[in-house]
Design brief:
14 helices; alpha/beta; homotetramer
């Protein structure tokens, strides 16, 4: 709470100007003394900068939502490449779409005006819709070719190890998230792996597989346990958010930095929209942590944060 | 699209009246000729009624969101008990909370005004906050006592079989979701099981466990494959929504009925908020299906639907 | 904030059951010991009940959003008729639609699945769309006939007086909001009156009209000033919300009761979604007030509240 | 709808890269071949660019939401100054806050974490909260000094003329919206003027005032009538959105360009969240118009669009 004499303590809202020469750094700097989500975005940028600059901070990154279909594969890849992510937790869907693109297939642009899509016609043309993006059915055939030829090293290996193996088998690609994680040995967790087209094809072609989800859960706890300092960036919520936060209860100091970019809100009571402040009650976020939730579409906010980090770090 | 002569074809919006004697059936009936979400709720009720009345329809129910903490455990239990659910897919969180209540522990009511919660104080008092509900840390100790004494029948059993085993070991309780599913042999899937406090305790105490997630995935596909007719009720979205829908691609006729109750929206592109119409493009929902998405808090809509079904079926 | 010893002070969340015999009172009573929006709805019902039962409480009711097109005209009419509203503030759109229905015209039901609407075809057929409801252009011709024949008593009369005059000129109709307000002399304010189809037709046909908006503003302040006790029900937000709240700053005790039913949220910073707690800082809501914001579609929540009030008051 | 042979017609989603040298133009260009709201933002930028570049296009700009408190006064000012706005429609709140800042008073920054605000304490310290921004009560005293000394030229003048008069009386200020509109003779409409703190003070001090709202309504219709080509930018929705759109029904060609930046959604049925496509059914937006709705906080999107326009136009 503000101190007694608010008039002296509080900073003015900055009625900032933008000049033609301004770049993203100027913009974010201007935002930091405003209000609403502009300020939150600026705060998220600054917190991420601190996470990157602090050597011993382990950066957990939770990625939910169909970001690869929306063209954000290269951005996520570069977050990993640049060292902005130490541990990645994501959904099976993003991995499926990542493999599709990595194998040379593509998502297609539908109509900006989703009301114009005729899903019956799309179905007849074997076009699967993800809001305003299409994924042709034949892409799954391409994934199936890849998956069916895999030799599973160990039917009981942890999912995360299997994902590194998958990455190692994928062709070189400048955007592939699985590939760069495998190359850089960045742990990549997918707690709901079987909830994906990729896992379905693996299950069909390799009937004895029983990838170990529990070992991943314990590995994740160990990673949190060993982190002297932890930072979190949550994109979208979902299972990745909870999987990271449940582990951070075992981090000696909980998260010291926390960012959340989401369109979800607290009122329906689900974890995706829960405030980062709520996580303090659980001991998942430190009571002295810097944290910022930006209510924004990640397809806008994430590239802005990336560009900011690239310029300033 | 409406036919040429709209004036003759379209029904008037019903400017309905409510009398003191009206009950929920009257209200829903009135809603069915209105607009916006009232009409969608009425349509959802009618679709669920048709699902229940149609003998051969297999009813898939996806449950995400912290419904047990919000007091909806008994409602979900009774959906199962009354035969309104044939296959349940849910989150590890709801199972954790279900076990907590079944073992005799309780969630506690916080302040309606969440802005009044001090999460630092809550943390110091070992009170974990879920929006306006609290879960004391000591409840986890109770769950741990239960979990640590379990003898795991088979470290590699499917998660769903393990959940039936768990249900069989729980004490009798009129609200327990796990118990009633075990008793009625209603399949209960949890694709992101290791993303939960329950699974963490199981993992800590039973280090060799490697519950099979892939077999569940294939079982789910088989259940969809064998369904002559399929109906879906999605509460909240998340992994349960996708897990059901990905299986229904293998249902010979896709879903003939589909209901969704959620606060999520399509614009951010994630699956939780995707329209049911989008699922037609994927072949998950039949192009002739009856479907309705109700934008509503499930804590309000689900009990209303239950009461409607109880009175009319 | 909860007291030190939370374990003793806090009430358990009620894992309630619904029986076939239950009616809305049972449901709301069950909701009152749960969480999330079910609890908020129960609290809103109880607060409105208290407002109605407290003789000297002046009940301000703000109505934004296209409720008449969605079939809620009769409900709002009955809120007035039953004495649940002492002062109504609404939008020009709702008044336009109220007149349309009162004159015997109708809104029409479109497709539940709004993605199926072809707005170009609708335009060609002179069908105006309001989400899933249509308003044929010809209805405006009917309103114009009515408006063009009006003799304006005084070009400078306050908008609110003009609205009572309008009500007095309308035919008898069991649902008309304007009519019942005129008959019961319930003040009805419309601060953005010229932002409506109704006002446009009045302006076209009565070019010298200059209804006084400032007198209404001052009348509203006087009504608040004279209210020993004030209660507020906000549906949807918008201008009606602010117009009521800005007046309540002049109420000696600010609002003692406040309910808000909306789908808007605080994060974008607009007043529609602002919390009722924020209004305490302005002195619009009393620091000891009972208040509840229900995040719900008003087409569902408002009829439920009405039925509750009818049964209990 | 896409043509028959989708595979040939549809463009690939661009898995773009960001380099350290990129500026906002590069980013927006990259966004234009993606999906979700990034693509919508790019489309909005391009549409606004076309509106600015097309000489005869009249640019209507609707501004709702507390943008001045959030530090966006200078941006809106510069939209006017640069010729990006031909007709401004806004709320009384934004005008109130604009005058406050123009007179040298300031909004103050609260805590990013709104849960930490104690509204009772704020009230006791005479600090009015607008989400995470504060407006001290004493600012209203400053506005009152200004307002009380005004000599109203004509008690029955249109609100828009009065607003130009107000602007002419304000001191020079590089950010003032009212000032720049007065100087550049940009019409500025405020259909719900009496719904504001500014109008309340005017009403208290100038009891005979009866500013004409109907003349503004007719002027606005004339402006639309005379526009050979019309473009619309809607920020936030509310009365400004409807006031612009209801006028554009009288524009010979309806709007040829339309942008909307909002956090509101269509499902609750209110106009703020209605799609721009719905406006085609009303004849407010042309069936061949280019249009884009960006679901984003205006405090982030509006500065980005401004910077884009500055660099490219």
């Amino acid at each position: 709470m503000p101190n007694k004499n608010l008039k002296e303590d509080l900073k003015k809202v900055n009625q900032f100007k933008i000049s033609e020469e301004d770049d993203i750094l100027d913009l974010i700097e201007s935002f930091s003394d405003t209000g609403f989500n502009a300020k939150r975005l600026a705060s998220a940028c600054e917190i991420y900068r601190d996470m990157v600059n602090e050597q011993e901070c382990i950066k957990f990154f939770g990625l939910a939502g169909a970001l690869v279909p929306a063209g954000m594969q290269g951005i996520v890849h570069d977050f990993v490449k640049e060292g902005f992510i130490d541990i990645l937790v994501t959904t099976g869907a993003n991995l499926t779409h990542d493999i599709a693109e990595t194998l040379g297939f593509h998502h297609l642009q539908g109509d900006l005006d989703t009301e114009r899509h005729d899903d019956v016609k799309l179905h007849n043309q074997e076009m699967n819709r993800i809001y305003d993006v299409f994924l042709p059915n034949k892409v799954y055939e391409g994934i199936e070719d890849f998956v069916s030829q895999l030799e599973i090293p160990n039917n009981n290996m942890p999912v995360s190890e299997f994902l590194h193996y998958l990455g190692s088998k994928l062709p070189d690609n400048p955007n592939s998230i699985l590939k760069i994680c495998a190359e850089k040995k960045i742990p990549i967790f997918c707690p709901a792996f079987t909830d994906s087209g990729l896992a379905m094809q693996i299950g069909f072609h390799h009937q004895n597989i029983n990838l170990n989800h529990f070992k991943d859960m314990l590995s994740m706890v160990n990673l949190a346990w060993e982190a002297k300092k932890a930072g979190v960036c949550i994109v979208g919520g979902g299972v990745p958010k909870n999987f990271i936060l449940q582990s951070l209860q075992f981090c000696p100091n909980a998260a010291s930095y926390a960012i959340q970019i989401t369109m979800d809100r607290p009122e329906p009571g689900g974890l995706s929209g829960a405030t980062l402040r709520e996580a303090i009650s659980w001991g998942k976020v430190n009571e002295n942590a810097k944290y910022s939730t930006v209510i924004a579409d990640a397809t806008i906010a994430l590239p802005l944060i990336y560009l900011y980090l690239k310029k300033i770090c």
